[in-house]
C-alpha cells in the first residue's frame, strides 16, 4: 500500500483551463441519425455513433492552446473487437445450451459461462481503449497507451472476481486500481501522467458515504460524486522534467452536481430521451469548465522542478 506522503514538484501558481465550444444543436442531427441506426441494427451501429461523438467533442475541446482531434472511425473500432463479440456470441448460443443439455446445475452453468466470457470482455475493452487512444491527438501529438496486456488482464479479472465475491463492495477499489494503471500508462507528446490517489483514503470516503447516501435516500449522492471528482483530479499530475508539472483541480460543488443531475434526469424523462444531445453537451461542458491544472507547464524546455514531500488530501 502506498503512503500519502509522495514526492511532488513545487508548483508555480499558473492556471491552465480547458475550453469547450460544443453546441447541442450541432450534435442533435448526429445523435438522431445514430439513434435510428442503433434501433435498426440492434445496437451494432453504436461503434459508428461513438466515433462520431468523439470526433465532434474532440474538435470542440482545447487545452494549452492546442485542440484535440479524433480520426478513428466506427468500422475500424468494430473490427478491432469483432473477434471478441463472435467468441461471446458463440459461447452464449453453443456452450450454454450444451451445458444445460448435459444437466449441469444452473449455478455451475452461469459461473462457467462468466469465467469464459470475462477474459474475452476485458480483452475487448483493452483493445478498444488502445485503438481509440492511438487515434486521438492533442495538436500534432498522438496519445499512446503503454499498458501491457498481461497486467491489465490480471488487474481487471482479479477486480471482477473480488467485486462479485464482495457483492459489489469492491467495485470502487477495482476502478481505483484500473484508473491508476490506465492513467500512468497513457501519455501524449511531452506530457506523462501520474496518479497519486491511495486505497486508504478512498476506503474512508466510501466508509462515510455509503451510510449517508442510504440515510438521505440518495440525496447525498451528488455531493459524494463531486467530492470524488475533486479527489480524483487533485491526484492527477501531468508533465515531465522538460516542460514542468501541473496538478489537476476540480472546483464543482455538491449543489452544482445536484443541479446538473436534476437537469439531466428531468430533461431526459420529459423528452423521452430525445434531449440527450443537450444532456451530453451540458455534461461535457460542465466538467471541462470546472476542470483545470495548476502548475508550471510550458511547452518549451524548462529546468526540472524542485521536489518536496507533500501530503495529498481530499479537499
Descriptive account of the structure:
The protein is globular. 57% of the residues lie in helices and 18% in strands. The protein has ten helices and twelve strands. It is of the alpha+beta class. Helix 8 packs across helix 9 and helix 9 packs antiparallel against helix 10. The N terminus and C terminus are likely disordered. The relative contact order is 0.15. It has a domain of 167 residues. The strands form two sheets. The protein has a ten-stranded antiparallel barrel, surrounded by five helices.
- What structural class do the secondary elements suggest? alpha+beta
- How many beta-strand segments? 12
What order do the SSEs take from the amino end to the carboxyl end, as H and E? EEHHEEHHEEHHEEHHEEHHEE
Q: What is the strand arrangement across the widest sheet?
A: 2-3-4-5-6-7-8-9-10-11
Name the helicity range: 55-70%
| Beginning-to-end CA distance, first to last residue | 21 Å
Global mean pLDDT: 86
Poorly predicted sequence stretches spanning 5 or more consecutive residues: 1-8, 301-315
Total of helices: 10
Morphology: globular
Strand content: 15-25%
Q: Report the major sheet.
A: 10 strands, antiparallel, barrel
Radius of gyration: 22 Å
Amino acid at each position: 500500500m502506498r503512503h500519502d506522503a509522495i514526492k511532488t514538484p513545487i508548483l508555480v501558481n499558473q492556471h491552465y483551463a480547458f475550453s469547450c465550444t460544443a453546441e447541442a444543436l450541432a450534435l442533435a442531427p448526429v445523435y438522431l441519425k445514430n439513434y435510428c441506426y442503433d434501433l435498426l441494427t440492434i445496437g451494432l451501429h453504436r461503434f459508428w455513433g461513438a466515433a462520431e461523438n468523439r470526433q465532434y467533442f474532440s474538435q470542440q475541446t482545447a487545452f494549452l492552446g492546442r485542440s484535440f482531434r479524433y480520426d478513428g472511425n466506427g468500422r475500424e473500432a468494430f473490427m478491432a473487437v469483432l473477434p471478441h463479440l463472435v467468441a461471446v456470441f458463440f459461447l452464449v448460443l453453443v456452450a450454454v445450451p450444451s451445458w444445460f443439455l448435459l444437466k449441469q446445475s444452473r449455478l455451475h452453468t452461469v459461473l462457467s459461462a462468466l469465467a469464459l466470457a470475462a477474459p474475452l470482455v476485458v480483452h475487448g475493452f483493452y483493445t478498444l481503449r488502445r485503438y481509440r487512444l492511438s487515434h486521438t491527438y492533442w495538436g500534432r501529438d498522438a496519445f499512446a497507451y503503454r499498458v501491457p496486456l498481461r497486467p491489465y488482464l490480471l488487474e481487471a479479472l482479479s477486480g471482477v472476481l473480488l467485486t462479485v465475491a464482495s457483492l459489489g463492495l469492491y467495485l470502487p477499489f477495482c476502478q481505483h486500481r484500473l484508473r491508476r494503471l490506465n492513467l500512468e500508462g497513457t501519455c501524449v507528446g511531452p506530457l506523462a501522467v501520474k496518479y497519486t490517489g491511495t486505497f486508504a483514503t478512498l476506503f474512508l470516503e466510501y466508509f462515510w458515504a455509503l451510510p449517508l447516501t442510504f440515510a438521505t435516500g440518495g440525496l447525498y449522492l451528488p455531493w459524494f460524486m463531486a467530492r470524488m471528482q475533486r479527489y480524483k483530479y487533485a491526484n492527477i499530475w501531468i508533465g515531465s522534467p522538460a516542460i514542468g508539472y501541473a496538478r489537476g483541480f476540480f472546483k464543482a460543488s455538491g449543489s452544482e452536481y445536484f443541479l446538473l443531475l436534476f437537469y439531466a434526469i428531468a430533461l431526459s424523462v420529459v423528452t423521452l430521451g430525445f434531449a440527450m444531445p443537450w444532456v451530453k453537451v451540458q455534461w461535457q461542458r460542465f466538467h471541462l469548465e470546472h476542470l483545470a491544472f495548476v502548475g508550471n507547464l510550458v511547452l518549451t524546455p524548462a529546468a526540472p522542478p524542485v521536489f518536496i514531500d507533500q501530503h495529498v488530501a481530499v479537499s
